[in-house]
Amino acid sequence: MTEDEPIEEPADDDEPIEEPADDDEPIELTPEQLERLHKSMERLRRSMAPKIDFNLGNVTGLSQIIADATRVSRVAAEAMKPFLAAQDAWTRQFKIIDSDFFKTHAASQVQFAKLSADLTKNVDFGLSKTVAKITQQYAAQQATWLKTLGPTLARLKASFYPPNLRDIEDLHFEDVEKVVMANGIALYGVPRTSVAEALIRAESAAKCREILGRRWKAISADCRTAVTACESEAVAPYVPFATAALDALDAGHKAAAQALVGSLLDSLVSTYFGKARYRFTPNRRTTTPAAYEEFNFREFVAFAPIWQAWQQYHLDENDPIPSTFSRNATAHSVSGRQFNRRNAVQGVLLACSLIYFLDEQAVARAA
Predict the structure, then answer these.
(1) Which of 357, 367, 340, 257 is closest to 305 using CA atoms?
(2) Does the pTM of the predicted model rise above 0.70?
(3) C or N: which end of the chain has fewer Cβ atoms within 10 Å?
(4) Does residue 355 carry a pLDDT above 90?
């Protein structure tokens, strides 16, 4: 079945799913059993709950993807009604099928594929054999619609994540947010998946910086590949300066690379945001990154590292020189504490990631 084929609703003359055998004993649930069931289902619900409550913005094709997923969930809900009718108490507790369950990128295809196994293996219901039979029948019913839903979920994940992040398993928004917002390290489009995953899995900011230092050649190569492939007029003025900074970095002139990329970043941010840049960069009036909540998911991943790169630094107030990449310290202080390979790599990575994102936007608008 292709993703363009409609998902058929059950026909009126479909044969009903068999009810539990008449000789099964009625399910009488004690208060203790009800409480155990409630706790078991709550554990399962938490294991599948969305990891993000975020302004996703207008993602191309998202409305159709959600419609497809919701339609599949409706078919599955109809199919399981005979099972749930067997026991009213079970019906009240069993609330997995819900359209909101599909309205998040965080529920990946792998998580859906594990759903049936979770129902039959990981939930300790502690009830009668009839409930166990109902559960097994329900799990079998999932096999068909989970296969149908697979391509839709793959499209959904692809619509949110940039290409270099799509193949990272069990990736949640907070994993990405930690790197791009808290650590100020770019992840949009670059670096390659293996390096991006290493940064995401790193235990601390210090470990992330170790990766920048150890994998700098791979990061530089990925940045060069990304920016030289950009062809839109929107980023054409910036590509030569990005490649010049990469040339300096590859030749061992890390201070020159960092100085150039500091100016490049200032130009990119000022041109894109204009006077609104003060809402997205720390200053005496802007003390929190609240304005970033306006971005959709992709915009957030692309722009979030700016917040750390523009942290306040006032030379005339004797502020300590930052040890991580700082656009302001790069512009106003010459020091080995600020000018080093790791910071040059961090700055180049951010500049090339922004160019990649802006080129992608320009291409999408022209299409």
Answers:
(1) 357
(2) no
(3) C
(4) yes
For tokens 């363009």, the residue is 4
At residue 143's C-alpha, the angle toward residues 135 and 18, to 5°, is 50
pLDDT digits (tens, 9 = 90+) for 181-206: 999 999 999 999 999 999 999 999 99
d(CA 354, CA 209): 20
Phi and psi angles of residue 169, each rounded to the nearest 5 degrees, phi first: -75, 150
Under DSSP, the state recorded for 22 is T
Which two tokens mark 37?
């069931």
Please tell me which residue, 111 or 200, carries the higher pLDDT value. Answer: 200
Q: Where are the alpha helices (DSSP H) in the chain?
A: 31-48, 62-79, 81-84, 88-93, 109-113, 115-117, 129-160, 173-177, 193-201, 205-214, 216-228, 239-250, 254-273, 297-303, 305-309, 327-332, 341-366
Tell me the domain boundaries of the chain. Answer: 31-160, 163-366
Q: Could you tell me how far CA 240 lies from the centroid of its own chain? A: 31
* 179 C-beta neighbours (distance < 10 Å), count: 22
3-state secondary structure (DSSP) of residue 172: coil
**Distance from C-alpha of 42 to C-alpha of 54, rounded to nearest angstrom:** 23
DSSP structural state of residue 12: T
Q: Give yes or no for a contact between 258 and 347, defined as CB atoms under 8 angstroms apart.
A: yes
Q: Which residue has the higher pLDDT, 35 or 213?
A: 213
Q: Largest alpha-carbon pair distance within the chain?
A: 86
Inter-residue contact 259 to 346 (CB < 8 Å): no
- Closest to 9 measured CA to CA, from 94, 73, 84, 96: 73
The two three-digit tokens of residue 249, written as one number: 């970095």
Would you place residue 15 in the very low, low, confident or very high pLDDT band (cuts 50, 70, 90)?
very low
Digit-coded pLDDT (tens) for 319-335? 999 999 999 999 999 99
Neighbours of 88 (CB within 10 A): 11
